[in-house]
Each structure stands twice: as C-alpha cells, then as structure tokens.
Batch of 2 targets.
Target 1
Amino acid sequence: MPDTIINNIFSVTPQSFHLVADKVYRFQLENNVVFREWSNLFSDQLTVNSEQSTHSTTANCSLFTAHCFLPISFFKTNKIVSTEFNPEAIFESSGTSQTINSQHLVKDISLYTKSFFEAFKLFYGDIKEWCIIGLLPSYLERNNSSLTMMADELIKASNNPDSGFYLYNFDKLEKILLKQEAAQQKTLLLGVTFALLDFAEQHTLKLTHTTVMETGGMKGRRKELTRAEVHAIICHGFGVTKVHSEYGMTELLSQAYSLGDGRFICPPWMKVLVRDEDDPLTIRETGRGVLNVIDLANLYSCSFIATDDVGIVYEDGSFEVWGRLDNSDIRGCSLLVV
C-alpha cells in the first residue's frame, strides 16, 4: 500500500487530494500508534476489526474533524512514526535551552528531497538556472536541521560555483551578490530573519536579479518585530520591492511559499485548514483561527498536524500567518510573533 500512495502524492490534483489524503489517513491510523490512540480519544466512530488485522480500521476521516489532526507538541514527547523503521534522518527543532525540542524521524529521505525539489520547480522553475545562497548561521551551528539539508541540496543541484553558505562574512556575501547582479544571474538569497536584518542594516544594495527569502526565526537574537516591519527593513537594505517567505517546520516534509504579498501558497500535496481557537473541535476550510496542516509527503510520520500558528485561510487555499498561540514554545522555523 505505501508504494501505491507514494506514486500518487506528487501527482495529486485538487480533485484527487481528498481521496489520496483519506488513503494516507487510513494507512497512518493502522500503523501509527500515537495517532491512533489520539484519534480514539475523539471518535466514537473509530472501530478496530481484529479479524482483518490487529490495527486495521473501518474509520472514515472527513479531514475536517478534530481527531484527524495530531497536536504538534506530541513530536516533543512521543515517537511519531507510521510503521517501525530505522530512520535515514532525524530532524530536530531548534528551540531554546528552556524548551523541549521536537524530533521528526524520517524513514525515507527521498520523500523530503522530492518534496522540496518539486516545490522549488513549481514556484521558481529550473534549479539549474539559479545561484543559491544560504544565510543560515544559527542552523549551520547545530545538527539535524531540515532547513539546512534543504538549502544544501538546492545549492548542490544549482551547479553554480558561487552557490553556498556564507555565514557571518557579510563583506564576502556582498561581493558575491554584486557579482551575480553584474552577470544578471538569477539568485536566491535564503536567510534566517535575524541574519538578513543584520546584513541589510550593514550593507545597502540595489538588487534586481536577486530574490530575498526569509525563513523566519529571531530566537532571542533581536527584538521581536512584525512581519511588515521585518520586510520594510529588508526591502530598504537590499533595494527590493518585496520579500519572499518560506513556511516550513521540523515536523513536516513540505513547505509553502509566499512570493512577496504575505500570503503563502501550498504545493498540491499540502493543504492548510483552520480550527476555531475557542472551539478546537471545529475545523473549516477557510476563515480565521489556528492552522492545521495536511502534508501528504509526511507518509511515515503523521500527515495531519494541528499547529500552534494563528492566521487566516482564504477561499483559494492561500493563507497568512499572524503569530503563535499564547504559551506555545518558540520554534526555530515558525514565523514572527505579532
């Protein structure tokens, strides 16, 4: 069954999304103990047919019911896996010394690489046409970062000699960016928010062939700012009219992207819903509230995640992130508090 599902994940259409998602849900309900126990707490419709299999189920998930979504905090305290396996990679959130970090055990790393390569192609075109520059100092300073792995793979796939990580050497980074500008080379400057702000305040540039993308993450390095304030500083420093953004997290294998208007767009195999903050059992396709994510690429973990991010989902499926629920831990890849 998993191979059949995998073949459908990255070819899914809006019309087939619910069908594929339902197959993923059933597979995870049968093979993910934590997810099944969580679902059992909420659904009296969930039945286990022991004659077929110890963990088989006849449950049906509408994808708009609370028991379909696992609280993201469970990744801090539980082993969230669908089937038992030796992981090819273990991604870990950053957090702080006062928080417990999430761990994401990845059975098949090719699902992650295919997810971000296909998404890059969808939103930005052929990776080989780009120079990829990673300004991710805090992530490079620790192990097991999914963002660092993604950036590293994009850098290698671009096959541009100037693609790479540039850490805190802003003078060298400025020279590289100016070199790419002179060559009219499409360049992606992918940076953690505090590092982009530091660079923008120390070097004033006029970039016309460079796309600046912030990944979120202040982590106590600077005073918390709203997204609008962050983008205004970056636009002024780099001479760009808009800043792109990535919405991703340790617990997922897919990312959504904002192309500069503050609205994130999901790839076809990812969908964001909204739950009522006052009535978390109410799940809707659109509206304001706390965001729930369906990530079909998360096949061997959990594809149905109830996040701590607050925002709005629009009729076309795009969404904005306004901040985090009160009392939720600060997370390395989450966006700015508003």
Target 2
Amino acid sequence: MFFKKVKRYAALSTGNFNKIFGGKEIPPLPEVAMKLLEKIKDPEVSVDEVAKVIESDPGLSAQVLKIVNSAFYSFPKKISNITRATGVLGLQKVEKIALAYAMVHGIKHPEREGFDFGVFWTDSLYRALFAKQIASLAGYEPEEAFTGALLQDIALPVLLGEWFDVYEPIYQRWRETGEPLHEIEEEELSWTHFQAGAWMAKEWMFPDLLVCCIGLHTYSVDEIREIGVGESAVEAVALSSRLPSMSCRKEDIEELFAEAEIMGLSEGKVMKASEEAYEILGEMAECFAIKAVSRPSLKEMLEENG
C-alpha cells in the first residue's frame, strides 16, 4: 500500500509540466547515471552487473570507493574494489551513492550573478548528511534520505541555466527581497522549483521514492503523512530542508525542532545528528569532489541566535 501511494504521488506531484514548459528540454543524464537507473529497475540484476556499470567510469569508481572507505560508513577494514563494496553494502545502497555522485557532476554550473555553486553544493551536502543521520535515528533507509536530500534542489541550476528566460523574474525578486523562494514561485508562477525538480526526476526515470523526496521537501511532516508517504526517507529529506543555510532566523531553527518533534526526535538528537553531519562535511565534500565553502554548523547558528 505504501509503495502504491508513493507511485501515485510521484505521478501527481509533477503536474502537467510538458504543457507548462512547452519546448524546454531537460539536461541529459550522464551516461553512467542512465545505466545505473536501468539496473535499479531490474529485479534480477546481479552484484557483478552493477559493479561493471560503476567501473565503466573510472572517475566514478574511484570516488565511490573513497565514499565507501570514508567516515560515511566507518568500516573497520578498507574495501578495495567495487564488487566487494557492492557485496558488502548491497545493490541499493551502492546504486544510490553512485547516482548521487553522477548527478552532482552531471549538472552544469549556471554562472549567474549571486548564485554560488560552491555554497549550493556545500549546503546540499550538509543537508544530505543530516538527512542520513535523521533517517538512521528514525529507522528509515539512510542512503535514500541522503540522495534525496542531496538532490532536493536539483532543479535550481537548471532553472538558472537552460530555463533562465522563464525563471529570471523569480530569481531577481528572491535576490532583492530574501523572501522564501517557493513562496515567490507560488505567487508568481503555476509551479515551484521542487515540483519542477520532481518532474525532472520523473523524466530521468528516478525511483518513485526519490521523486517524492524532491517533490515534497518543503512540505511539513504532517502534510507528508496526510498524503500517505510518511515514516520514510521523505520525512528525513523534508526535515533536512529546514536546516538553515549560511544565515538564519531564530524562527527557522524553531521550525526545525518543531518538525523533528512530530517525528519523535528530541532537540538533543537533532543537534547530535547535525554535529555528526558537520564533522564529516569536509571529508565528504572531498569524496564528492565538491569545492566546499566555509559555513556555520547548526550549533553555531543556534548560539548566534541565542
């Protein structure tokens, strides 16, 4: 029943974007990401088959091994090849991590004034690591939460790049006013960046749960449970979206804690999850070949805001 609801929402959440965007094209997926997604759908796929797809891209293979041998997993012994990594972690975990890396490096820098790609990916990675910790605490699938959180705003570089003729007024108002982006979108457009992201993910043939993670990341936990896809990685991703960026208001942190409480997570657990994520942020940025920028932790933001 849960997966039927996920499938249904993944279809409904994308809207009629083919009509809205007309002839606009979605950037093609990296070839290795396409192959991985094909394998994910095959229930008979073997460890060797997935390993061969990852190994076909030497850069991806090297980075996946870095991630597997990092503090992300903290295995006691080094894992030296992709086949072994896939066997130890399982197909789904390795596929999600490899897909996340492929997408990070498959999306072009839009090079718009005021948009810092380093800040974008640093914030995304911090939220992804936080979502992984939250998912583990709540008993959800950590890798799904990590990948969903990392890609929750994947539409933004596309909107600021290939689709800037549509999105420029929204971006300029957001820069000038600092209003929440999705509120500006809802007021001025018939869609939001998270709906656009869900549609792109659907077109890219992402698994339905990842489509939901992207499409619902600004929803409250209560709203997610009303839809019927709660108590899953979707909640962890939504909570991660409340993790403030480079600056925040006291109300932002209060909202984060309030949403966590609905999930049965205390402020102490949220703070611990955020600190554990922050501790490995630099190492994981290197593993994902992200040019990270310095940013405050949630603890530092909380202290600054009293």
